[in-house]
Specification:
single chain, 73 residues
């Protein structure tokens, strides 16, 4: 069985930086993510970008659902 490890400080730093960058400057974020690297910080950046996208999609879905409910009334 594989034990879960806490993410490294570099991973967390990359995650937080990319999450914020995807929100504020998505074009720049995409350019950075096009690089290929295997360090913890870059892996954190990839995860931060993915998390931002998941939350953005969830927000759009919820807005769409709410609009549909409003229109049905």
């Amino acid at each position: 069985m594989q034990e879960e490890q806490d993410p490294s400080p570099e991973y967390i730093k990359g995650f937080n930086q990319m999450y914020k960058l995807k929100k504020e400057m998505p074009e720049v974020a995409q350019q950075i993510l096009s690089a290929k690297d295997e360090c913890d910080r870059f892996k954190g950046m990839q995860a931060g970008a993915k998390q931002h996208e998941l939350e953005r999609i969830r927000e759009i879905t919820l807005k769409s659902r709410d609009q549909s409910r409003y229109q049905q009334r």
